[in-house]
Amino acid sequence: MAYDGNKLSKLEALKLLAERTKLETEKGIKAAIAEAGHAKFEKVDTLPEIADAEENVMYLLFNNETNHYDIYAKIGENLEQLDDTSVNLDNYIQKEEGKELIATEKITKLDGIAESATKVEASATNGNIKINGVETKVYEQEVATTEEVNAMLDEVFGIGEASA
Predict the structure, then answer these.
(1) Rg value, the chain, Cα
(2) Least confident piece of the model among 26-30, 103-107, 147-151
(3) What is the pLDDT of residue 163?
(4) Fewer beta carbons under 10 A from the terminal one: N or C of the chain?
C-alpha cells in the first residue's frame, strides 16, 4: 500500500477544525453566561413600585422594628418579601475565647456522657491500667528468676552459669 500524503493533511485539517469548533463553543458559552441575568442586592429607603422594580434585584429595606434588612424581590407581578438578614442564635451559648460555639442541646447531651463516662488511662505499673483513677490489674505476668533463665540457657545452649 502506497503512502498517501493527502490523508495526513486531511487529518491535520480535521484536528484544526475540531480545535476551532471547541474554542468557538467555549466563547459562545461564556457570552451566554455574561448575558444571563445575575441577581444583585440593592439597598433602598423605600420599595420601588412594581412597574419600576427590576428582575434579578433583591431589594434590602431596613426594618426599624427588627434593626435588620428585609429582603424583597420582584416575582411575577408582585414584590415579595423573601427573608430578612437577621440571624437567630437563641439555641447557642455565648462564645468564649478559646472555646467553640455549640448548640445548647448538644451541650446537654455531652454533659450526660461526661457524668457516666469511664476514664481509662495508662498506668506506670506493668500489667495495670487506671480506670477512673484506680489502679486495676489487667493481666499478671510471671517472670522467671535469674536461676531459672540460666538453667534454661544451659539446657538449650550449654551456656548458662552452670557451664561457666
Answers:
(1) 40
(2) 103-107
(3) 47
(4) N
